[in-house]
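Shall we go through a protein fold together, starting from nothing but its sequence? Please make up or recall a protein chain and show it to me in full. Go ahead whenever you are ready, and we will take it from there.
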Amino acid sequence: MDAPHIARRLALALQRHAGLHGSVEDLRRLTGGATKTTWSFDLLTVDGRRPMILQQMPTMTASASASPGLAAPKLDAAEDARVMIAARAHGVPAPAVLAVLDVHDGLERGYVTERVEGETLGRKLVSDPAYAGARRAMAAQAGTILAAIHSMPVAELPFLQRLSPARELEVYAGLLARTGFSHPALEYAVQWVRKNLPVDWPDALVHSDFRTGNLIVGTEGIRCVLDWEIARVGDPMQDLGVLCMRTWRFGGAGEAGGFGAREDLYAAYERASGRPVDPLRVRFWEAFSNLKWAIGCVRRGLSVRADGSPASLELCAVGRRMEEPLWDFFQLIEA
């Protein structure tokens, strides 16, 4: 479907779902892939120009809840939108959802949100002098935002899967087994996680991908939290562990996202949530998340087309990066 055709359908969808009348202008595709296709555009109305984002999710990537145990949880477009709507209602800076698309719109499943201006590129955020002030604030901001996410009432979102640490290991070990790829370091990491699973944790809504690269940042700090499609109910310490992974520091010195101090993240979280951070559980999830990313690299690297040829040179290159999170995993468990 070409851009002019999408623009016409998009204008009709916004009129139908949100009562917004106008023409779609400057429609530009930002990213594309197996999970989402993202478009930036402006809706020109009698009241002025409104910046927006369209995200499309092909039907084939609908929620993994339809086939539990076969894949990691992934929300469909309507569920993703509902989580963001609930998050904003709870004071979390999530994208403002304007319309949720359906089959009658002819645009695949997806949703439209307001567009938030800012930077998402990790290397720029952790090194550019223009964001020095933001870096001083972001660890505390992240702790406060995560505390708000973890206090969201999950009863309002009954479609979310609950993943205990043991269940999450079962899912990812199963994904690795289905690749047929065998590696001693991966096998050791799986066994280490199995032996060190937490036995007690409070259930909470977990973003599960809260990290540099999924945050829109301005010079004052974090403006918006993106990519909610793998949210689940689980151990809240998981989010702190993911944010502290070396992979998502993009070369920055700060242990929290490459931009700040782990201590500042923890202190802000405790102030905002009224609950103590468990450093050992955070480190467990940091290690486990490195294993999950290593498995993700393997799966991407082994991706093939219908004829059996490698899916792309880019995915092959991602596959070779398996060793980086594995190195980080072993550094963590030795420490």
In short: The CA atoms of residues 22 and 45 lie 4 Å apart. The chain has eleven helices and nine strands. The first strand starts at residue 23 and ends at 31.
